[in-house]
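Key result, reporting period 2: structure in, sequence out.
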């Protein structure tokens, strides 16, 4: 879905490395803009919670999110956990017009003429007993992707550059069993957790996987956006660990046209990414090479992929000081002490100029923006400056 406008992006804020000439800044940010961040303790979630706060134009948490974006000023950004709102005027347009286009704390407004938003699997009712509790409840653990209402934990992409909408590919409906050698989901006694009828209908993507071709002054790259499920909140069968691993694997296979031959997108197009394609993988992947609960080698499928440039690793002083006794602290991208969020460009056609994590330390005047999930999010914005060759 597309919004056309003529606004010009302002200069980069001085608190983040200035974008080099002829480069673009690409970012990912899990913004925690779902109803659970707005609910009163003990009260049910309101699926309209984000819509109501976007209309206000002055909600503190959303204002802080917008200020962070204005300070970092990415040219292209994926927002994870931005609830899906079908009416664009109530959803992403309201965020742009009521927050991003309003100067916050002396920052220049920032406008994105183009965006992409689409339904996701989270909270979409299924007829299956996906969580294995003996009842098919439709939502929660039995939704196609865990969620308490349709569209919870959705995704949005904002861009200064045109998104080639006719060539967008999504894999929301891709069936898990269609992936060769999919991760096994077994009970402790070695039996299959799912019966065959259920397994044949399960979708792989917990939200969706999007390939958005973006044109930057005649040079194209593919933004590969996703948000795999956390590898926890399950039982001994580790079904979420298996799903997290294979959601990450989907992109690892997709990077090769031949290796991804089994993949069929939501429009029926088969195969992976064409050879010699520029791409940037973005998102909250809920997996770290160093710590956490993901299956061994999960994120390494991307970090060690021969077509992916995963070095240098983005870091922050704030992350380092947040966990001073942990040698991995500087690499963390989440307040719960893990590297979970990634901006990974292709080796082909892209030079990685600089990258980082927006995490002001406790002694910074900007620490107010990242004090906790209520202030903005339990994740930090990760950015990379990229030159397209």
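The corresponding designed sequence is given below.
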């Amino acid at each position: 879905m597309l919004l056309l406008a003529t606004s010009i992006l302002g200069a980069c804020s001085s608190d983040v490395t200035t974008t080099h000439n002829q480069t673009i800044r690409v970012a990912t940010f899990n913004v925690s803009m779902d109803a659970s961040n707005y609910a009163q303790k003990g009260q049910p979630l309101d699926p309209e919670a984000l819509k109501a706060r976007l209309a206000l134009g002055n909600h503190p948490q959303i204002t802080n999110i917008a200020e962070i974006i204005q300070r970092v000023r990415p040219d292209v950004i994926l927002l994870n956990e931005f609830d899906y709102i079908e009416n664009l005027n109530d959803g992403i347009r309201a965020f742009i017009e009521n927050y991003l286009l309003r100067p916050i704390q002396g920052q220049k407004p920032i406008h994105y003429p183009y965006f992409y938003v689409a339904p996701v699997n989270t909270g979409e009712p299924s007829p299956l007993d996906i969580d294995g509790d003996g009842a098919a409840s439709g939502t929660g653990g039995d939704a196609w992707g865990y969620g308490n209402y349709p569209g919870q934990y959705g995704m949005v992409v904002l861009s200064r550059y045109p998104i080639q909408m006719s060539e967008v590919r999504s894999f929301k409906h891709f069936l898990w069993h269609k992936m060769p050698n999919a991760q096994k989901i077994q009970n402790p006694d070695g039996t299959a957790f799912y019966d065959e009828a259920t397994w044949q209908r399960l979708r792989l993507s917990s939200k969706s996987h999007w390939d958005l071709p973006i044109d930057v002054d005649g040079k194209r790259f593919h933004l590969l956006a996703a948000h795999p499920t956390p590898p926890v909140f399950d039982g001994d069968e580790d079904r979420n660990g298996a799903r997290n691993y294979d959601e990450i694997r989907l992109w690892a296979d997709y990077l090769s046209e031949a290796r991804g031959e089994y993949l069929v997108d939501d429009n029926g197009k088969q195969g992976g990414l064409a050879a010699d394609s520029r791409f940037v993988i973005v998102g909250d992947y809920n997996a770290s090479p160093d710590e956490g609960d993901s299956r061994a080698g999960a994120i390494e499928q991307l970090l060690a992929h021969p077509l992916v440039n995963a070095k240098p690793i983005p870091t922050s002083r704030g992350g380092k000081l947040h966990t001073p006794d942990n040698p991995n602290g500087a690499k963390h991208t989440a307040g719960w002490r893990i590297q979970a969020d990634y901006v990974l460009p292709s080796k082909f056609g892209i030079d990685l100029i600089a990258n980082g994590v927006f995490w002001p330390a406790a002694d910074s005047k900007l620490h107010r923006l990242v004090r906790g999930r209520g202030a903005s999010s339990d994740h930090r914005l990760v950015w990379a400056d990229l030159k397209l060759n």
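The chain has one domain: 24-388. Helices lie at 49-56, 60-72, 92-100, 196-199, 239-254, 300-303, 317-322. This case is discussed further under Risks and Mitigation.
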